[in-house]
Amino acid sequence: MFRVTDVQFTDVRGKLNFCLYFQNKKRRLMINKRKYYNDHYIYIRTGVAHEYQLRTSLEQAIKLFNQPCEYQINFIQKNKLYAGFSYIWVSNFKFGYALTSRSINGIKIDVPLITLSPYTYDDIQLEHLRSMIPIDQEDIPTQGYFEIDRAWVKDGPYHTKSYELVSSYLPEWITVKYLSDKISKYATVKMITKNNHMVITFPQINIIDCMVYDSDGICNRVQICNIKFSSDTHDGKFFSLMCRKLMVTNPNNDNDNYNIYFRYFDTTVKTKSSKSTIL
């Protein structure tokens, strides 16, 4: 059982940082309530919108913005039902400014420079709304609207490295280049120099072939993926926001789709050499 032992407010770059300290007999933990922002990431309250409706509104807004901007949507669904929110990555952070009530220079303003156009409810959405809202049918609106905010992340659990993510049981056809093409855009720091000569590039992607014994003693060959972002950034956290579940498609077979699930590297997990072997 944990108990609160201390509450502290510290000043971090002019902002209060609220920390709770919990303690049990074995260890003392800190839960950091600070939020980290990155203007390449946007949080959208989508209501009952379909992904194609969000995509259509987003592309119209980018056209109005009239500057180059690529995007990636993480459309959240829970059990194939409406989750009501999504995350978007945009290559041009000034477009993020424009959507979240800031000027091109990042200064807060009263109204956004660009908004996402509303979407028209289809029969499926109307039926869902009628089942949720106890009002007369004629009172149900015909359009839905998107609410936009800045996306944010927090520190991961104390025993994890949030700049390093791992995944197991990858499809056999997956390659480092394939993953790099999907993931590299989420790295804000692409390269660092250590000891004045050694250059390290990010993200670092490794795919390792292992032989793993299951509970029945049967040996299985699996592929494990390890991805590292710069530990001086919050790139790993934001990558997790967008790609905790990453759908990949075999380049040689459009019908061969696979979901890869990423998690933070857990420093408490120790792999026993008798249970797995790196090939």
Strand order of the largest sheet: 17-10-14-13-18
Largest sheet: 5 strands, antiparallel
> What's the domain count?
3
**Given this structure, which CATH class of the largest domain is correct?**
Alpha Beta
Query: What's the CATH architecture of the largest domain?
Result: 2-Layer Sandwich
Task: Give the total of beta strands.
Answer: 18
Fourth CATH level, the homologous superfamily of the largest domain: RRM (RNA recognition motif) domain
Helix content range: 10-25%
| DSSP summary: helix tally | 5
Q: What percentage of the residues does DSSP assign to strands (E)?
A: 35-45%
CATH-assigned fold name of the largest domain: Alpha-Beta Plaits
Distance between the termini: 42 Å
Shape: globular
Rg from C-alpha positions?
22 Å
Give the SSE order as H and E letters.
Answer: EEEEHEEHEHEEEHEEEEHEEEE
Derived structural class: alpha+beta
